[in-house]
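In practice, a research group might receive sequence data for several interacting partners and want a quick structural hypothesis before committing to experiments. The following worked case mirrors that situation: the sequences arrive first, and a predicted assembly follows.
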Amino acid sequence: MKWTQYFIPTQKEAPADAVVPSHQLMIRAGLIRQVVAGAYSYLPLGYRSLRKIEAIVREEMDAAGALELNMPAMHPIELWEQTGRVEAMGDVLVRLGGGSGDDWRSRVVLGPTHEEVITEHARAFVNSYKQLPLTFYQIQTKFRGEARPKSGVLRTREFLMKDAYSFHLAKEEAGGLDETYERMYGAYSTIFGRCGLPYVPVEAESGPIGGDASHEFMVPTDAGEDYLVRAEDGEYRANLERAEVAPLDDKGDGTDQAMAEVHTPGLGTIDEVSNFLKCEPCRMIKTIIYESEGEPIVALVRGDHAVNESKFARAAGVPFVEPASPELITKLTKADVGFAGPVALDARVIADQAVTVMHDAVTGANKTDHHLTGVNPGRDFEIKSSADIRMAVEGDRAPNGSPLVFEKCIEVGHVFKLGTKYSSAMEATCLDQNGRPQPFIMGCYGIGLNRIMAAAIESFHDDRGICWPMAIAPFQAVICALDMREETVVKVAGEVHDQLVAAGVDVLLDDRDARPGFKFKDAELVGFPIRITVGKRGLAEGIAEIQNRRTGDVQKVAPDAVADIVAKMVEDAIREERT
RNA sequence: CGGGGCGUGGCGCAGUCCGGUAGCGCACCUGCUUUGGGAGCAGGAAGUCGCAGGUUCGAAUCCUGUCGCCCCGACCA
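A structural hypothesis for the assembly, expressed as tokens:
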């Protein structure tokens, strides 16, 4: 392919709107163009890269035994009503709307994910355990009404996703969910590895479904909006929602103060009380009242800690918790919201472990406009139940005692054991060995293809431009033909190009009539992993140059030798980049 | 949805406070020169200043409304 016949609108300057490196570079390198907030066109060069990512995903999913199909973006809203997700998704579910109430548009939504549709298909066609296990996947455009798209293609309203769904009647047994989950986990590792990403699989929060049934694949980068937490010794890692912390030591720093009531008029938040009483938030006990199925459950955490509702619900043994209504809080504490405390509180209370080692603490007094000081857990209120129910923070240690470190990251993939959530709701059943209908046990597995591309750029760029991993670079190599008016340069560059193509290298010949510096800058901006320089000066010595974009290493070789060497470099790079 | 910022050729910006009929750099077109790190000179094309009202002899500029985009936060199967 010749540059003059291709289409690469590079720009010297990035738009002021673009903030993160991948966004700036994707625009500057002519990979994408924004159409509206949260939706981008992929220009030919960008689409080439996306297609390479797609090919890798497809190969590995096929190899893992998943069957490719294609489902529509348009779904009847009835399917979403069956699983109760019209409410659950809220504004994220993109409705076509328009027209009158009985217009077909008001009954159609654009799919943000496809559990409902695929479960309908399984319900329709899969009748016997003998057909199982089954895994379907597709690579398809998703629509989500994100409140705030951001960071270029990292968070958009329309994006390309590989979503897979597996169907089983068994869990641990052969052919069960666990087996497929493991296989998908392996396929994901291979996919992100082949794409050259420094990915980290982490335990993720699985929400109301419970269990250790979810992993996310993260790529560390400042542009990300998630956090991954890992132990310094590398023995433990999880996402922020999931991260467990080791119990804190009892510093024994109490003086066994007497409990006293203080007047704190109108001061209902930790910050307000902390300022008023000149008391560090870490010396306060935060009393947060939740409810589950109408019953109040109270969480106690240190003032500078936050309740992790998933951990809390798990500790409480309930599917999920929600913040209690102000009415319930008032009824329980006999005080306005903001003055709850554990002393003499008649409710089920779970204290975070960190609270159990506090001394002389400040808490709400269960009396409007009053707090208590000198509160000592165990002495002033009984701790019937304690657990790790808070979010990890800097300074915490992993369960094995190793310090936790926090890293910003992008989620590029997620594997999830769904269980029977959707099959039960949609009455999608299958006959087991005993001829009894059982709801499918399902797994789902997603990858954001656009995010792979952006994450690769976030991970691999410098001040000059992108440094693509070989496997997903739009072109593996570029030939900079210096001085297109020189016949020998044109001739040799053309020959090198043809030999590279014959050797199976994906190469672009920069045949523009431009000055050398101009071509080099563009080559570095676009980030071709290998640059071959064919110029009058080199040819006079009988050589062409081969340069590695990442290392900058240069080899000078005879033009005839370029194709073999570069083909080998491409092969080696694809193997070595694999993480 | 709350807070903030910004809309002027493809991109980056000035001009807005103080109203007088739109300018600079990059990119683009033509010609000549130049060719190993984003060339030089000359000529040229391209913007109803986001949109709609209003004030005024006159609006990019003032007023009102509206739309869009970006950032922070809330939210995120």
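Before designing any experiment, note the following. Chain A has 16 helices and 31 strands. The CA atoms of residues 137 and 164 of chain A lie 4 Å apart.
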